Amino acid sequence: MIRPRALPMIALLLSGCGLIGDSYHHIETAFPESWRNAPAPAAPEAAKAAPVWPTADWWTAFQSPPLNVLIAQAQAANFDIQAAAARVRQADAQARIAGAALLPTLDATAQATHNGARGSQGSGGGKLRIANSYNATLNAGYEVDFWGKNWAAAQAAEELAAASRFDRETIGITITADVATTYFAVIGAQDRLTLARSNLANAEALFKAIQDRFTQGIASGLDVAQEESIVDAQRAAIPPLELALRQNIDALAILVSKMPEAADLLPAGEGLTLATIATPEVTPGLPSELLQRRPDVQNAEAQLMAAHANINAARAAFFPSIQLTASGGYQSPVLASLFSPTSTLFSLAASATQPIFEGGRLSGQLEFNEARYDELLQDYRKAVISAFSDVEDALAAVQQDAAEEAAQRQAAATARTAYELTQRQLSGGIIDITTVLNTQRTLFSAEDALVQARLARLQALTGLYRALGGGWQDSAPSLSPSLSPSLSPDPAPAAPPENTPAGV
Length: 504
Description:
Elements: H1 7-15, H2 44-48, H3 65-77, H4 79-99, E1 105-118, E2 128-144, H5 149-215, H6 221-255, H7 290-293, H8 295-316, E3 321-332, E4 344-353, H9 361-427, H10 433-467
Antiparallel strand pairs: 1-2, 2-3, 3-4
Helix pairs in contact: 3-5, 4-5, 5-6, 5-8, 5-10, 6-10, 8-9, 9-10
């Protein structure tokens, strides 16, 4: 039992708990004042308006209801998203386990015995004697976190739990963007396949007309052979497009966690083409806001903060560990006196354990944690630079793909006009068949290139949404949560940044 003169020392230990090591400081990062490839405002008034970020449901800006359905299915059932959610629960559980060291432990034990025996009084046997004994004890233990070792370990677990949430958000953005790009690829493959079959029908019709002219002696055998080669080329282009369509549908099925044979993967009906999908104008906000929006950057800093807390815990391990134990209970041989004051037992003890020789284990652990922090620091800096680079590349891709689509649309329109003119001139006998065949090849190529340019632009827009952090809302706790003995695994969410819909 602890001596009375030791109580002031224990009180001092309890009131003097502090953290060995320094506090984490946010890593300052230089960022550009504006986006290099940001689109120029359409009007002077627009230049004065503050740029806005995409909304949380950014995919609705494409105005394609089937896409909305597919993304809802992916968010509800995608295997990677579900696995990430499970990792969040694991991290929360680990945080509770680590936080338990900040709280006292309390164990209860109870025991009851019943004994009976007869005395040896004569031949008839002695009187039966019965004895009952009851024991009930409460044992409490508490480690005084004088140097902050347990607090630092709990903080590290909390930061890792926050990192797991950011990782889940990153995966959610990635899966959502993958659904959109794959959906566009499916529609693009359908468009190209429809165009290829239409071109094949046109080529076959012209081939028949040239054969008739050959029979009449108007066309040559070379004319027939050239048009036949075009027909064969158009027919050969169809199987690869059919394969690409099947592969994209299978990829889309995996993203929404359905079997590839699912008949309801895409809605039936006409009119589902790339031309019917809107191309929203994405106007990103200030570059500095990117670091608060990208969950992968937030994840990198949360990992860094966890490593910093582990360094503090490793430093604190060099100092003594103070343990307090107490036990109290009741012991009585009979039930009637079980709770009498004379049966009460109580003891209190304190002990301190000082590491003296650990064979380099403590210093090695500290050195490891410091090296781990340096590694994660470089990962964080790389994540920041990569985030800005992703946005700049995505902005450039959106601009270039939009310009390419516009140019390709003009080229396809010109090729269509040229082909129609040569057909009329051929009927009037003004030009030969070779000119018609050349314009036909040009038209088929230009129309297919237009579909691919349209697909590239839509996928570039999706890439920009992904680079900006999607429509992610800051629903995770602060990157430096204040720890308390309760260590609630689900702290109140911070207020999300205000988002404004993209101009569509």
